[in-house]
Amino acid sequence: MVSAPNNGASASGTGQLSALTAGTKETSSHLRLAVVVKKFMATGGAERYAMETTRRLCSRGHQVALVARQWDTTAAADGLSLHRLPDYERLPSVLNSWLFARDAARLLATLPIDAVISHERGFRQDIAVVHTFPYHRGLARYPGIRKIDQLYLSPRSWLHLHLEAQQMSSGQLAPVSETIRDDLARYYHRTRNVTVVNPGVDPDYFSPGSIDGFRGSARQAITVSPGETVILFVGNEFRRKGLDDLIAALGAAQHLVVVGKGERWPRYRRLVRRLGVAGQVHFMGLADDVRPWYAAADILVLPSLAEAFGMCVLEAMACGLPVVVRNHAGAAALVKKETNGFVFHRADELKPLLARLADRHLRQRLGNEARRTAQACTWDKAAERLEALSRQVAVELKRSHGTQA
Hints:
Strand order of the largest sheet: 5-3-1-6-7-8
Strand content: 15-25%
Number of helices: 16
Largest sheet: 6 strands, parallel
CATH superfamily of the largest domain: Glycogen Phosphorylase B
Radius of gyration: 22 Å
Structural class: alpha/beta
Helix content: 40-55%
Shape: globular
CATH topology of the largest domain: Rossmann fold
Number of domains: 2
Distance between the termini: 16 Å
């Protein structure tokens, strides 16, 4: 069953989570949960978040009904039942999303469940994990007449806004970062029952020990001298993630490794030639295992112009790398200046920061602290927070049924 939405004003964030955890700790029974996500596989940030937390909820003894269109068969877990929905892949993406939401709602109405955790914009969920910026945020960029057209005359915008409104009416919202949380308050005035649940990291898989053996061969593959600094960029959508600014900030004795598949490859090839850094920038494409490149790197930089979180930041920190992150990324909230990395605001601040990080002793100190930061941000903790929210939903549902009886 799905609880009623609650949109009043009160405190939000991790403080609220501590309170609700204390209030539900006495409940040790296993829950019947449903998890809604289009793709249950490690193909993107939201998908990996759903997979990592869901498998851990199963390992804690809960029964989970997975509602999805696609899933990785190797990600099966005890207690996980699969419910496949049809895929309308030939339809426009927003209509495809609307039909997914409709089909999921119909299926969920037939399942005996205590709480629904959705990683998509949908019609039926108790806990909406919010992985993306509000659609209203994008509309705010348009000038007056264009904005009116998008708000009132575009069927595509209507469907997006309708889905988002349904998501925002969920009883509990779990934005993946403080950045998203602030946008929910700005555009939807949602401050009650809003709990930040950051993505996590596996600190054993991503660790100095697990990557150490890759370093020599990875650096040799890009022909780096011992005294040169290797800067790592991980991600797709190069322009949104600020790759232009990072390339422009490169200095002497610095190499940039780009892992990911971005748009407009010819443009970036021309850019590095025009800036005279073609021999310093290495486009490696997609990688099934990015750990060799964390091993090769001395620094990770995420200069995104807009980023809900940025999981590569946590992965790099877990590997013992200092990080440099633009303030527009949600993961910037984890970075403390000159403690585990740096946060920058303007593009012209980046070059001096990279120059400072040529200091090997500074990198070592920041990297050690970055590792400690990541060890406190595990997928287990993310799953515990979603579990606590689910218990709260189940308790409130039980109370409402008792009142109705």
